[in-house]
């Protein structure tokens, strides 16, 4: 049992924040290996993440974790001060540290000590850090705390001074001394780092941080300007409000928001120093200015949001019920006064419910960044493991999705990315021979399209060969030669989604044994989404995932089949037609209609679900649906209308029914079954392919 | 026309530096060691002094102290080589206003003088 100083509520916050910090660490470290990256900024961000996590770990009394992060932080500090340059060994060691930190965070979540041995990782980190001389204390950031309880005399003001000494200077200590002497001349130095006595032959700092009482900033400015190789920034500290508030993260305190003079080179902002926290503490007015116009955030638990969503769902169901009741009353009593009052109130409730639903949905939306963020690390590791070179491009990470969808989409994406690196992208030698850049491209992109989100996983690798897939299907006994030959190219590509079908020539430890793709499709379709493939031999493959914005409530077309109500998700509906039953022709043993000059296969839902033909009264409706490249007409007796449906699982007693994904309660209290177009299409396809049907 | 005292034991340095300053309209006085520098300062009260540190007879630091004793408003910039931070710190404590590292760039010398004289 792990003994930690942490209440359950605190634990929630700690874990959430730790997760974010670990992600920042991972992501930052991976990007650090990219030579074109802005490393100074990256190192600063990574350092900040490690530092913050260390602080939290220390706070809860997890000393092992704090010690580990401290070692990481020390190494990062050397990078930060350019005492070391980034090498793969350093990144590896830091990633190993981050991995271990992740396991410690898991310990906090479970409350169980995992008995991890940090010694080897600590040793690596420390050995790498020891590759340079110990940092000088003066090399730290703007960490000097503002003086407290200072009485500012009449006619004087408190100023924070941040002077950056040029790296070119061969005697920075002398410059620092000049600064301190100038400050003493112009005013009263309350505190400074360094102090005069710190300055000696060996001082190698690059900044002077001080708090000074002086009559005016101009006096300070004039004297500091006369010192060579020094960039001064003078900030009013406390008291006066800043003249200009900058919408910056509060932690980026080193940005000189309210300066008396805008220094041409913005030395303080550029300086690589700056402690992760509290360094901006010197400028109280600064902080006050920032809070204006900022969005105020409240963290809330996912469970609470889920509960809210459920309540809203109930409300939507009740609202629909009330609308039905009103309609009945109107039928019965006409437009009497009482009924009209009810109508008016209902109209308002309806609109409020809609807005509420909208807001709750929005509150549950999370940028897909949360999923994408993990991929730089995953891709790096996989590429290393498989000897591939991959450049990962991420687009549209700000696209928002319902968090339940986000959670579900992670594994399928991971699988597609693995496959792309393992099977899609060629090894560097092969790519060179093919005249392709050695670094393969892997693109992860998200965008929203109407009520859907499209996620693409694209590689510029081998591409897939429909012919090879047909052959493989025959060799593995999935199809006979004749059936295989009849498959169109697109259908042949779809073979990879068949359970147990694998096209991998060699089974690698990474991509598994081809059990993946059918699971990917099943998972995505369970979400009400679809997967499609575009591929060009030698050019690459793109998998496109189409996902609904949310799972809980969606618009559906309600129809009647033999007296029962079915809801067809509107996202799958192309159009609904009224046809004469005589127009439904039987072509090669299957029913179809001709509409807009093409043949549309038609399935009677009465026959599919009940195995009986409805009474023929001369006409019926055909709802055209589209799924995964297949269009299909569903013959029903009546169209009832469009309705927002709240999906309820059918429960274990009923189990999985082909063509049905769940149930919903209608406004009139009847239960409607929600059609799962994907599984319907697949069930029909199987029926068509198997010789017995 | 501002008058500048150049103090250096190396004649080449005095020459190079003198030429530069004259080109920019300064009047130049020279001294080749600390003792001479103190004498010259007394005689002609230059507007600013460029003072080498390591010199025979009397070094730059001592000369600086003497000059500041004579004229607390004396404006002196030290000429220094690498690795003399300790001495430079001493010089600044003793009242030097700036320091220039040898070998120096013209612009750096001119900038220092501008600041010294402002």
Descriptive report:
- The complex is a heterodimer of chains A (693) and B (118).
- With 693 residues, chain A is α+β, with helices and mostly antiparallel strands.
- Chain A has 5 domains: 8-135, Up-down Bundle (Four Helix Bundle (Hemerythrin (Met), subunit A)); 138-241 and 252-277, Histidine kinase CheA-like, P2 response regulator-binding domain (Alpha-Beta Plaits); 302-364, Helix Hairpins (Orthogonal Bundle), CATH 1.10.287; 367-464 and 503-548, Heat Shock Protein 90 (2-Layer Sandwich), CATH 3.30.565; 553-689, CheA-289, Domain 4 (OB fold (Dihydrolipoamide Acetyltransferase, E2P)).
- In chain A, 42% of the residues lie in helices and 22% in strands.
- Chain A has 21 helices and 22 strands.
- In chain A, α3 runs parallel beside α5 (119-129), α4 (88-110) packs antiparallel against α5 (119-129) and α6 (172-186) packs antiparallel against α7 (217-225).
- Mean pLDDT of chain A is 79; it is low at 133-140, 239-294 and 503-515.
- With 118 residues, chain B is an alpha/beta fold.
- Chain B has one domain (3-117): Response regulator (Rossmann fold, 3-Layer(aba) Sandwich), CATH 3.40.50.2300.
- Chain B is 47% helix and 20% strand.
- Chain B contains 5 helices and 5 strands.
- In chain B, strands 2-1-3-4-5 form a 5-stranded parallel sheet, sandwiched between helices.
- The A-B interface holds A 170-174, 177-178, 181, 199-203, 225-228 and B 80, 82-86, 88-89, 91-93, 97-99, 101, 108, 111-112, 115, 118.
SSE inventory with pairings:
The complex is a heterodimer of chains A (693) and B (118).
Chain A: H1 8-32, H2 39-59, H3 63-80, H4 88-110, H5 119-129, E1 157-165, H6 172-186, E2 188-193, E3 207-214, H7 217-225, E4 230-236, H8 267-270, H9 284-291, H10 302-333, H11 337-363, E5 365-367, H12 369-372, H13 375-386, E6 390-395, E7 400-402, H14 403-424, H15 428-433, E8 440-449, E9 452-459, H16 466-475, H17 481-486, H18 489-493, H19 516-526, E10 530-536, E11 540-548, E12 553-561, E13 564-569, E14 573-580, E15 585-587, E16 590-595, E17 598-604, H20 605-610, E18 619-627, E19 630-636, E20 638-646, E21 660-665, E22 671-675, H21 677-689
Chain B: E1 3-7, H1 11-23, E2 27-31, H2 34-44, E3 48-52, H3 60-70, E4 76-80, H4 85-93, E5 98-101, H5 106-117
Parallel strand pairs in B: 1-2, 1-3, 3-4, 4-5
């Amino acid at each position: 049992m792990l003994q930690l100083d942490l209440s359950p509520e605190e634990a929630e916050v700690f874990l959430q924040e730790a997760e974010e910090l670990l992600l920042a660490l991972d992501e930052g470290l991976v990007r650090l290996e990219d030579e074109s990256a802005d490393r100074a900024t990256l190192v600063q961000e990574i350092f900040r993440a490690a530092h913050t996590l260390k602080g939290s770990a220390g706070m809860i009394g997890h000393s092992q974790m704090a010690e580990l992060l401290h070692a990481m932080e020390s190494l990062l500090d050397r990078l930060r001060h350019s005492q070391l340059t980034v090498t793969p060994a350093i990144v590896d060691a830091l990633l190993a540290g981050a991995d271990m930190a992740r396991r410690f965070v898991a310990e906090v979540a479970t409350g169980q000590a995992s008995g991890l041995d940090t010694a080897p990782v600590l040793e690596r980190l420390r050995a790498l850090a020891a590759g340079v001389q110990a940092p000088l204390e003066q090399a730290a950031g703007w960490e000097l705390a503002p003086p407290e309880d200072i009485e500012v005399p009449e006619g004087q003001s408190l100023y924070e001074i941040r002077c950056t000494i040029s790296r070119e200077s061969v005697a920075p200590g002398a410059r620092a001394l000049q600064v301190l002497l100038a400050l003493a001349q112009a005013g009263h130095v309350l505190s400074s780092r360094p102090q005069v006595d710190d300055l000696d032959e060996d001082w190698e700092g690059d900044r002077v941080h001080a708090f000074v009482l002086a009559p005016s900033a101009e006096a300070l400015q004039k004297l500091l300007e006369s010192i060579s190789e020094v960039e001064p920034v003078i900030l009013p500290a406390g008291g006066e409000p800043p003249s200009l508030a900058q919408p910056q993260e509060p932690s980026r305190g080193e940005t000189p928001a309210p300066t008396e003079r805008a220094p041409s080179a913005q030395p303080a902002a550029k300086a690589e120093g700056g402690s992760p926290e509290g360094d901006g503490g010197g400028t109280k007015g600064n902080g006050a200015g920032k809070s204006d116009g900022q969005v105020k955030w409240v963290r809330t638990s996912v469970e609470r949001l889920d509960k809210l969503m459920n309540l809203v769902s109930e409300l939507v169901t009740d609202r629909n019920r009330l609308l039905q009741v009103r309609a009945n009353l109107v039928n019965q009593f006409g437009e009497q006064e009482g009924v009209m009052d009810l109508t008016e109130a209902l109209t308002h409730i309806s609109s409020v419910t809609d807005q509420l639903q909208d807001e709750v949905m929005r509150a549950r939306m999370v940028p897909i960044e949360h999923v994408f963020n993990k991929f730089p690390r995953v891709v790096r590791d996989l590429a290393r493991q498989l000897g591939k070179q991959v450049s990962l491009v991420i687009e549209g990470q700000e696209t928002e999705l319902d968090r339940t969808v986000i959670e579900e989409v992670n594994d399928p994406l991971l699988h597609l990315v693995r496959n792309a690196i393992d099977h899609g992208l060629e090894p560097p030698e092969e790519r060179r021979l093919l005249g392709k850049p050695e670094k393969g491209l892997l693109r992860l992109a998200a965008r929203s399209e109407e009520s859907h989100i499209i996620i693409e996983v694209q590689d510029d690798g081998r591409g897939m060969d429909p012919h090879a897939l047909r052959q493989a299907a025959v060799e593995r006994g999935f199809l006979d030669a004749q059936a295989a030959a009849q498959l169109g190219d697109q259908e042949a590509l779809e073979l990879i989604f068949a359970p147990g079908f694998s096209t991998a020539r060699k089974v690698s430890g990474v991509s598994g044994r081809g059990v993946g793709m059918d699971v990917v499709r099943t998972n995505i379709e369970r979400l009400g989404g679809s997967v499609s493939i575009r591929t060009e031999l030698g050019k690459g493959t793109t998998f496109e995932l189409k996902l609904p914005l949310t799972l809980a409530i969606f618009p559906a077309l309600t129809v009647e089949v033999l007296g029962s109500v079915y809801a067809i998700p509107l996202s799958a509906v192309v159009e609904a037609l009224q046809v004469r039953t005589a127009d439904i022709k039987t072509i090669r043993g299957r029913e179809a209609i001709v509409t807009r000059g093409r043949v549309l296969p038609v399935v009677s839902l009465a026959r599919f679900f009940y195995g009986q033909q409805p009474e023929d009264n001369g006409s019926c409706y055909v709802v055209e649906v589209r799924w995964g490249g297949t269009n299909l007409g569903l013959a029903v007796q009546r169209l009832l209308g469009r309705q927002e449906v709240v999906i309820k699982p059918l429960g274990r007693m009923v189990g999985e029914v082909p063509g049905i994904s769940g149930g919903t309660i209608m406004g009139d209290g009847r239960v409607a079954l929600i059609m799962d177009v994907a599984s319907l299409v697949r069930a029909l396809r199987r029926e068509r392919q198997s010789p017995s049907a | 026309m501002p008058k500048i005292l150049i103090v250096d034991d190396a004649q080449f340095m005095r020459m190079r530096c003198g030429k530069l300053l004259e080109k920019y309209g300064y009047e130049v006085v020279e001294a080749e060691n600390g003792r001479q520098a103190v004498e010259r300062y007394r005689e002609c009260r230059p507007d600013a002094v460029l003072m080498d540190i390591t010199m025979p007879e009397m070094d730059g630091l001592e000369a600086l102290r003497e000059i500041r004793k004579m004229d607390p408003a004396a404006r002196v910039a030290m000429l220094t080589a690498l690795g003399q931070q300790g001495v430079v710190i001493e010089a600044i404590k003793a009242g030097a206003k700036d320091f220039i590292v040898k070998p120096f760039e013209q612009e750096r010398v001119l900038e220092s003088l501008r600041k010294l004289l402002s």
